[in-house]
Design brief:
- The chain has 344 residues and is of the alpha+beta class.
- It contains six helices and 20 strands.
- Helix 1 crosses helix 3.
- It comes from Pararhodobacter aggregans.
- This is Major capsid protein.
């Protein structure tokens, strides 16, 4: 037996994560279901320009004239870097762990192994939670701003049309006399279709916004919370994306309605992924949402990966450090296939 406690390799640390529960990512699952890994710091996307030109009238005997090919643009983004780091002190291994009987029934090495596994899980949970927060912000604003004491403030603006980020005021707010939420949603869906060509099939709302919508009798009468497949009706069977924080409320026409509220903290400040009066509209497949990952900038890695962990030891004072790294960025390749409105 070795005289020193073992250091785990990055591969072994990755294995520790697999059997453990991951945080659920409601918005990511709905709107950014795809993953792309890059072996570079920047990530690039080619986006075809919209083409709505009709064919010209010509005489049958006229010579056909050439027309320009549909153009495209290259969007290039640099993901922010995430690098949680946790030191483990020898004294941590001498104290009993949660669930141990009084007096302890685990050896220091057993406690050490459990603590390492829990630390890797915590790091991964922080990264996944940050990606969900980024997705929430991008859907709400069409952009993401990275602010940190150790990182120059930087904004990635995906260029969503300004008419697709709204905040209703005064007499236009939901709940005011004469305001029809269903008429609003119909008009906003048309705006999305005009600016992107996408069809809105998903509406995610804060709880208070949904209460104002369902208070409208015409909507309430049409809301169907049954899922029908090949003639079989399944009560309360939710579409992909539903989890503990998001709830499927029903379908009207071709639009699925969800409510969502997930608390998190940032710098000790309590926040929520979804404003209580917020409404996200989108074509969840036509958005072409992708969570991209830039290369891991570590001399021991230098690979394309979603999440990377390593472990190393320092002396005087004796510490073991567990470090994680990730460079994620959710990208809505067709950003105008989404819209956000704060309705009150």
């Amino acid at each position: 037996m070795s005289d020193t406690a073992p250091l785990y390799t990055s591969r072994q640390l990755a294995e520790l994560v697999r059997p453990l529960d991951r945080p659920q990512q409601f918005l990511v699952n709905l709107f950014f279901p795809n993953v792309r890994l890059f072996e570079s710091r920047r990530v690039d996307f080619h986006v075809l320009n919209m083409a709505r030109e009709v064919a010209k009238y010509v005489h049958p005997d006229s010579v056909a004239s050439p027309q320009a090919e549909r153009g495209f643009k290259i969007d290039s983004f640099e993901p922010a870097y995430l690098k949680p780091l946790t030191p483990l002190k020898p004294s941590n291994m001498l104290d009993i762990r949660p669930g141990e009987r009084v007096g302890g029934d685990m050896s220091p090495l057993e406690r050490r192994a459990e603590r390492i596994a829990q630390t890797v899980l915590d790091h991964e949970a922080q990264v996944l939670r940050r990606i969900e927060q980024m997705a929430s912000t991008i859907l709400a604003t069409g952009a993401i701003t990275v602010v940190s004491d150790e990182y120059p403030t930087a904004t990635v603006n995906f260029g969503r049309d300004a008419s697709q980020t709204l905040a209703l005021t005064t007499s236009a707010r939901w709940g005011e006399d004469g305001v029809s939420p269903t008429a609003n949603i119909r008009n906003w869906s048309q705006t999305v279709a005009t600016n992107s060509g996408a069809v809105v099939d998903t509406c995610v709302m804060g709880g208070a916004a949904f209460e104002l919508l369902v208070a409208e009798e015409s909507f309430r009468d049409r809301l169907d919370n049954r899922r029908q497949n090949d003639g079989d009706i399944n009560l309360f069977q939710s579409p992909k994306g539903t989890d503990a924080w998001g709830s499927y409320q029903g379908t009207v026409g071709n639009v699925d309605y969800f409510t969502y509220s997930q608390p998190y903290t940032e710098g000790g400040v309590a926040k929520n992924m979804m404003h209580d009066y917020g409404v996200i509209l989108g074509g969840r497949h036509q958005l072409h949402g992708v969570v991209t990952y830039g290369a891991i900038e570590d001399d021991e890695a230098l690979v394309a990966a979603q999440f990377w962990s390593k472990m190393y030891r320092v002396h005087n004072p004796s510490r073991v450090f567990i470090e994680a790294a990730a460079a994620p960025l959710p990208v809505p390749a067709r950003v105008n296939a989404s819209m956000y409105v704060q309705v009150r």
